Amino acid sequence: MTSCRLFATAMILGCCHVAALADPANVTMERLLAAPNNGDDWLTYGRTYSEQRFSPLAEINVDTVEALHVDWFADIHSEDGLVSTPIVVDGIIYVSGAFARVFAIDGTTGNQIWTYDPVVDRAASLNTSWSVRINRGVAVWQGRVFIGTGDCRVIALDAATGEEIWSIVSCDSSAGAAITGAPRIVNGMLIIGHGGGDVGARGYVSAYNVENGVLLWRFYTVPGTPDNGFEHPVLAKAAKTWHGDKRWQGTGGTVWNAITYDQDLNRIYIGTGGPYPAIASERDPEGGDNLFTESIIALDADTGEYIWHYQQVPHDTWDYNAATDMVLTEVPIEGQTRKVLMQAPKNGFFYVIDRLTGELLSAEKYTTVTWARGIDLESGRPIENAEARYYNNPDKKALVYPGVNGSHSWQPMSYSPDTGLVYLPTQDFPSIYVQDPAHGLVVPPLPESVEQHGYLIAWDPVSQSERWRIEHELPINGGTLSTAGNLVFQGTATGQLWAYVADSGKRLWSSTLGSSMQAAPITYRAKGQQYVLAPVGLGGSARLIRPEQGAAPGATGPSRLIAFSLGQSHTSLPQVNPLPQLPEPPEQNASAAQLAHGKKLWTETGCYNCHGEEVKGLTGGSIPDLRYMSRETHREWHAVVLGGSRIKKGMLPFHESLTVEDSEAVHAYVIQRSREDFDFLLRHLRKGSLD
Questions:
Q1: What range does the domain containing 534 cover?
Q2: Which of 75, 280, 315, 447 has its CA 20 to 30 A from that of 81?
Q3: Alpha-carbon span 35 to 55, nearest angstrom
Q4: pLDDT at 225
């Protein structure tokens, strides 16, 4: 049974109405605390406060999963894929898409109930190229749905109608901040952070009254300018780990993703991003630790007061932030049951931390790591390889594992208390780090000879060892779900949803999705039937820089929710339309030197961050593939790149960093790359070797 199509207009209410919702989104603290035993709903980002992403539902299990089929699908207006975790309350799905649009969907039919568009200002943030587009989810509480936006707003919606109740500004988009993560609700407080540390935004996490958006408390993660004083006493201590008097002192450390509530201890744990600027010698030549960047911080949930911290990468220079999801559980260690926090951050080490004290219990490599040999358990500090600090190298570059994307990023991992294993989506490839005098940190494209791998790893957090692994065709794949049916589900970059036996890794079932899947699947039960729900569509950083890392050529289809069940209802997914043929680029007579200069600027000025390495963008999204530019757009090149004529679409002007000659060189390089791909396709079409 197919659903209605969703439209692109702002705030469409009433498409495909179902019966009026009775007491919608009735989520209370009692329900959230009892969520571990409630498999029917998915009430918060990680299903429960422990964020294990484990479901007690077992109707779909190792014996029945082969009969799983598509029950319904719903096309979602999200031109940049789906990276959010759907929330399900009493059979109603609440999910966010690109530009923080929110959708309410009937969980048994896929029919849309309402949709809301906050009309995000695409030119709001200094890092608008990606942050205004990305949204990882909503929160629900007592009849309301809450969303954070890329232009720094937090908005409360009526869960029955999608109408706005209140809206407040939570961060400063003019300083580069943007909200991309999902809020959490604790005791009537909405907890939210923001991103933008990579362009100098100062990090903090805020707690708001859910009734009216009034700020209750705020914890800053870095000290800021000492002349302005310190918001918390602990920041005075943190300030001693920052040196120099440059204007950027004390920036970064943003809480762009990881927020976890400990219902046993009434604490909130946050994971922080890296310091700014990225190159450590420019930021702090004296080698300070730069607290509390790259850290896990424990806060009192009622007051936001500091309790403890653990820093993973002091004086970071590789962007190994600690913002990946954190999982809470209890495990036996040396004969004692310990309350622990587990995290597999970007730096390639799996950490197990005592969440009462912040003591590091163990840390081991879960993938290829060359920046450090290990972690000293007594001090908690990494044992670094000096040659990995590229700014100390004579040629000012280094090939380092993991790369700037990390070994594990925002794609959620899951944990099964039945098997005691963590199911970890892992990406295994390096970056070439270069210190450029004019542009700071530059990460050039990897040579074709460098292998890139993607894995699903089953990790034993007690023995700190791998139990089994599955290798994928492409390196960047989706998050995971584990269930009491002894199953693990994961979507892949090649456009399949797979089910594995949780304790052995045996492949049991798969379904073709029509698109890459980067988000994590969830499961819920409605009207007595268990569903597995897949949010599909290439999203996140995999969509921008090198989309071929996160999507196979046949896996660039539309953004959809696809629901699978064992029930009687069946449907088929429509065939994905082929990509349009590349247009013939205009002629040019650029010199070899001009083309080389344009190629160099493409990397140094960060053009590749949005439009892809080697001008290989992804069609169909909000950021255009420049190989498909019209002749008219080619003629308007300088107006767009230097004059800012498309700033309202999110294309900021580069007049401060590029001259007219520079702009012409970049344009020449784009035309050259477009011509190369056009001629390649034309040759093969003439030979009949391409469909």
A1: 29-565
A2: 447
A3: 10
A4: 80
Supply the CATH number for residue 626's domain: 1.10.760.10
Structure tokens at 189: 């407080």
Name the nearest CA neighbour of 555 among 572, 573, 533, 569.
573
Q: Look at the pTM and tell me if it is higher than 0.70.
A: yes
**Comparing 547 with 599, which gets the higher pLDDT?**
599
319 carries an active-site annotation: yes
Please name the helix (run of DSSP H) or strand (run of DSSP E) that holds residue 340, with its range, or none. Answer: strand 336-343
pLDDT band at 687 (very low <50, low <70, confident <90, very high): low
Q: Last residue of some domain: 549, 565, 581?
A: 565
Q: Give start and end residues of each alpha helix (H) in 173-262.
A: 233-239
Pair 557, 492 in one domain: yes
DSSP letter string, 424-460: EEEEE--EEEEEETTTEEE-PPPPTTS--EEEEEEEE
Q: Indicate the number of domains in the chain.
A: 2
In b/e form, how buried is each residue of 6-29, taking b as 16+ CB within 10 angstroms?
Answer: beeeeebeebbeeeebeebbebee
19: in domain? no
Same domain, 511 and 602: no
Structure tokens at 326: 């954190």
CB 546 within 8 A of CB 493: no
Same domain assignment for residues 608 and 541? no
Residues 524 and 608 grouped into a single domain: no
Residue 522 lies in a domain: yes
User: Does 459 share its domain with 360?
Assistant: yes
Decide if 134 is inside a domain. yes
Q: What was the pLDDT predicted at 430?
A: 97
Contact 652, 661 (CB under 8 A): no
The CATH number given to whatever domain includes residue 268 is 2.140.10.10
CA distances from 409 to 276, 321, 473, 586, 655 (A): 19, 9, 18, 39, 33
Find out whether 661 and 635 touch, Cβ atoms under 8 Å: no
| In a domain? residue 73 | yes
CA distance readout (Å), 205 to 194, 196, 268? 8, 13, 10
Please state, as a whole number, how many other Cβ atoms lie within 10 Å of the Cβ of residue 591: 10
3-class secondary-structure state, position 537: coil
Distance CA 151, CA 170 (A): 9
Q: What is the strand order of the sheet 144-148 is part of?
A: 139-141, 144-148, 153-158, 164-169
Average pLDDT, integer, range 274-278: 92
The H-assigned helical ranges of 26-76 are 29-33
Query: Are 527 and 672 members of one domain?
Result: no
Alpha carbon distance 349, 473 (integer Å): 23
φ/ψ (deg, to 5) at 339: -80, 120
Which string of DSSP letters, residue by residue, matches 633-685? HHHTHHHHHTT-TTGGGT----TTT--HHHHHHHHHHHHHHHHHHHHHHHHHH
Tell me what the mean pLDDT of segment 412-424 comes to. 98
Spell out the residues 6+ positions from residue 245 whose beta carbon is closer than 8 angstroms to its own.
none
- For residue 297, which of 319, 320, 323 has the smallest C-alpha distance? 323
Which residues on adjacent β-strands are paired with residue 374?
Answer: 383
pLDDT at 3 over 70: no
Encoded tokens for 314: 């002091």
Q: Is the domain of 551 the same as that of 613?
A: no
Amino acid at 192: I
Q: Do 505 and 419 share a structural domain?
A: yes
Which one of the listed residues 319, 325, 625, 662 is annotated catalytic? 319
Q: Which of 25, 43, 29 lies closest to 187, judged by CA?
A: 29
**β-bridge mates for residue 73, sequence order:** 2, 562
With beta carbons less than 8 A apart as the criterion, state whether 111 and 569 touch: no
